[in-house]
Amino acid sequence: MHQQPLGDRELASDCLFMEKAIAERYHWSSIEASDPELRRTLEQIHDEVHQGAKRLFDYLHRKGWYQPRYADPSTWEWFRGTIRGFQQEVGTAMHGLPSPGQPWGYVPQPASPAWYGAVERRY
Questions:
Q1: Helix or strand or coil: residue 36?
Q2: Which of 59, 82, 105, 119 is the most exposed place for a label (fewest CB within 10 A)?
Q3: Are 61 and 12 a contacting pair, CB within 8 Å?
């Protein structure tokens, strides 16, 4: 079976997919790096990969080969509500943690039960 060679569209699309996957790996690696120099290096590489992905996206979009779907107003409202919910959940989870400059083990008074175990979730 003879296959047609890949064209510019397929090659650029595959490269964009790979760049997105690679950027995700560098993102998570930089977040979890405990060494500051390693973290800065991973962040720099992530930024470079991200810029490459943006150039690929722009190329595909300019050619009309990559057309993102635009969100309607109800989708945007759902998204904003979801983000607000995440922000509230993170704020609740962070309640009781020491402020910057306070040592671990410092427990603000009164201490909530969530401080001593898993964060309580209320749905």
A1: helix
A2: 105
A3: no
Confidence of residue 115 (pLDDT cuts 50, 70, 90): very low
How far apart are the C-alpha atoms of 118 and 73, rounded to whole Å?
36
- Which among 105, 87, 84, 108 is positioned nearest to 96, based on CA atoms? 108
**What is the dihedral angle through the alpha carbons of 6, 9, 11, 16, rounded to the nearest 10 degrees?**
-160
Predicted local confidence at residue 117, as pLDDT:
44
Domain boundaries, the chain: 7-65
Q: How many residues does the chain have?
A: 123
Higher pLDDT, 54 or 109: 54
The pTM for the full model equals 0.58
